[in-house]
Amino acid sequence: MASLKFSHSNGNPFAVTRHVTPRSTRPTRIGFKIFASDNHSEPDLSVCVNGLQMPNPFVIGSGPPGTNYTVMKRAFDEGWGAVIAKTVSLDAAKVINVTPRYARLRAGANGSAKGQIIGWENIELISDRPLETMLKEFKQLKKEYPDRILIASIMEEYNKAGWEELIDRVEQTGIDAIEVNFSCPHGMPERKMGAAVGQDCALLEEVCGWINAKATVPVWAKMTPNITDITMPARVALSSGCEGVAAINTIMSVMGISLDTLRPEPCVEGYSTPGGYSCKAVHPIALAKVMSIAKMMKSEFNDKDYSLSGIGGVETGGDAAEFILLGANTVQVCTGVMMHGYGLVKKLCEELKDFMKKHNFKSIEDFRGVSLQYFTTHTDLVRRQQEAIRERKAIKKGLQSDKEWTGDGFVKETESMVSN
After folding, report:
1. Which spans in 145-200 are helix H?
2. CA–CA dist 61, 83 (Å, integer)
3. Counting CB atoms within 10 angstroms of each CB, which of 109, 179, 189, 303 has the fewest?
4. pLDDT tier at 16 (50, 70, 90 boundaries)?
5. 3-state secondary structure of 36
6. Helical (H) or strand (E) element with 271
7. Residue 191: which residues within 8 A CB-CB, separation 6 or more?
8. ∠ CA 153-237-304, rounded to 5°
């Protein structure tokens, strides 16, 4: 198996040296953590997740922004902390996309073309490029960027040998980790792929067992929000050997119906199919799912040994800060890149630094998970409010009338009405 060791090379604090050692127990898939020792006045955005050192927590989410060598190279050049490639499987010949495959939801009256884009639906499938082509590009990227984190997203049919072959082939390229797509809401569910696995905990446990018995690099399980309780598959994935979970993938949706043509969007030859919903409008839903997973991880697992990657509607540094405050180690962006370009990462970094300066946070770990403590049950909210009301009533703020003066408490009663 491969373990990771980080060392300084030519002054580069993110250099990666890979050592191959015999595989023993699961924790050895995790590399050695490094913590910055320099005392900088600027906040430190670097993170170390499952032994993977990143200059910042911003990760290209699996999808069009990681679809080939050219765009992934651009992401590294712009400064993204890591790149997750578009999902690959053994037989790309079965993947046939259509065009158009996107539809947008705008704010404003009647979906005006001038309104802000708040929702984005896609009916896009996983990579339709030959696996061998993608593997060559992974290898080339790791050759050119040995100090940057490249993560392969994989999906396969319900076949143990198929999963094992796919893992073996992607690992041979030198990728740093694997994200398993248990969450794509559309396309090929009849082949037990994507959300068809993530929604079935028994099936998920079996497939995770195959994957984690074979993988020698950290494995993240990408969760579907199209489920009643997202903590259930997240718990199964971690218990079955995954080092981390990512949440959320897109939400099953129908973007809308044209009131002129009566046809659904996106419209392909007059027809459509439900697709995955992303962008700003899903952000609150994603925050709730991430919060639930983080609370479960904190109570049932040693969350220092596992990781959580937050995904959903990130376009600003503030959006990212919210995920981190709820326990996320990294934050993925996909639709945001499609709308604003790869240079978005610079804005995200600056805005996240501004947030950290405002609160005097020096590192990501200083505030990761801080807001989890403020979530409770509705019953507890009622109790807290009733107690607060009782306490406010118990505090007398001055006398209401002359008849309330007493001889015994005269001095204190006088003090209660003094303003300085």
Report:
1. 160-171, 195-198
2. 7
3. 109
4. very low
5. coil
6. none
7. 157, 158
8. 95
pLDDT at 401 over 50: yes
Backbone angles phi, psi at 122, to 5 degrees: -130, 145
Q: Pick left, alpha or beta for residue 51 (phi over 0 → left; psi -120 to 50 → alpha; otherwise beta).
A: left
Predicted confidence (pLDDT) at residue 292 exceeds the cutoff of 80: yes
What SS3 state is found at 6?
A: strand
Q: Which token pair is 325?
A: 């405050």
End-to-end CA distance of the chain: 70
The CA distances from residue 318 to 275, 323, 355, in Å, are 27, 9, 7
Tokens of 419: 């303003």
3-state class (DSSP) for residue 177: strand
Q: Where are the domains of the chain?
A: 45-372
C-alpha closest to that of 337 among 72, 99, 110: 72
| Mean pLDDT within 181-189 | 77
Q: What is the CATH number of domain 45-372?
A: 3.20.20.70
| Cα–Cα distance for residue pair 97/78, rounded to 1 Å | 29
Q: How confident is the model over 321-374, as pLDDT tens digits?
A: 999 999 999 999 999 999 999 999 999 999 999 999 999 999 999 999 999 999
| Spatial contact of 313 and 280, defined as CB atoms under 8 Å apart | yes
Confidence label for 396 from pLDDT (cuts 50, 70 and 90) = low
The catalytic residues are: 184
| pLDDT, mean over the chain | 88
Q: Where are the beta strands (DSSP E) in 61-136?
A: 82-84, 102-106, 117-122
Show the tokens assigned to 373. 């403590």
| pLDDT per position as a tens digit, 256-267 | 999 999 999 999
Closest listed residue to residue 23, CA positions, set 1, 47, 46 = 1
pTM of the model: 0.85
pLDDT, position 30: 56
Class of residue 267 by CB neighbours under 10 A (exposed 0-12, middle 13-18, buried 19+): middle
Length of the chain: 420
**Contact yes or no for 208/154 (Cβ under 8 A):** no
- pLDDT for position 351: 98
Element (H, E) at 150: strand 149-154
